[in-house]
Amino acid sequence: MSEVMRDTAVPLYVQIAENIKGKIAGREILPGSRIPTEAELSKSYGVSRITIRKALELLVEEEILVRKQRLGTFVLDKKISRNLNHFMGFSQSCELEGGRPGTCLLSAELVKARPSDVKALKLQEEDKVICIRRLRLCNDVPVILEENHFPRKYAYLLAEDLNRSLHQILKEHGITLANGSKTIGVCYATREEAEQLGIKENDVLILSRDITYDMAGEPVYSGKEVINADRYEYKISTTNVAKAE
Fold first, then answer.
1. Exposed/middle/buried for 104, CB within 10 Å: 0-12, 13-18, 19+?
2. Do residues 204 and 127 touch, judged by C-beta distance below 8 A?
3. Fewer CB in a 10 Å sphere around the end CB: N or C, the chain?
């Protein structure tokens, strides 16, 4: 039986929640695994199912556990957290979370520029762009399906190993990425996206559209990312400091 202290001011459900968190941190319970049922936990801790339910609800609120209808309660994988107050790519954000970034190149080709490319990249309607589609992984787990479009002057990218960081490759060619603009929304996984990301068709995804600029303020590429929201999140800091009169 897992021990709880009954002669303390700390509620039993809080103790149980902390005990389960400790087992997850100690990898007694692994990310992605199903935890025992309420009945099993009730017997293990020697408390009522109501107490167990409150403990699990607390862990769900803290995004440590997730309930899946008709399947049970599972340990959430740790999300990669990207701070939008700092300019960085996927590889860097993955490494900052202690993960191992990976890339699977899906395609790299010269294609006709879309109207959105013409506007974002300051092109002519007849221009072509370098289209690079890649699957981004963290610890071998698919996280992001990305498609980046570059002006034709970046055609040298087609001769590079595009399983590497694009930001690093560009830096090696003297291109320093300075800043960018990002629009974030949601979309629903197509069949292809679901297969690539290991999710179900029509699952909700984060949709990110980007334009990235060099030090001179010229657009280097425009991008689209569809992101598994179970494995990735964005954070931004805000302030409400009043101006001095």
1. middle
2. no
3. C
DSSP 202-245: T-EEEEEEEEEEETTS-EEEEEEEEEETTTEEEE-----PPPP-
DSSP reduced 3-state for 166: helix
Query: What percentage of the chain's residues is helix, strand, coil (to nearest 5)?
Result: 30, 35, 35
CA distance 39 to 48: 9
DSSP symbol at 34 = B
Asked whether 232 and 144 are in contact (CB, 8 A), the reply is yes
Per-residue pLDDT band for 245 (boundaries 50, 70, 90) equals very low
**Full-model pTM:** 0.70
Place of tokens 């179900």: 200
Sign of the alpha-carbon torsion through 152, 225, 201, 136: positive
Q: Confirm if 121 and 129 have CB atoms less than 8 A apart.
A: yes
Q: Return all residues near 61 (Cβ < 8 A) that are at least 6 apart.
A: none
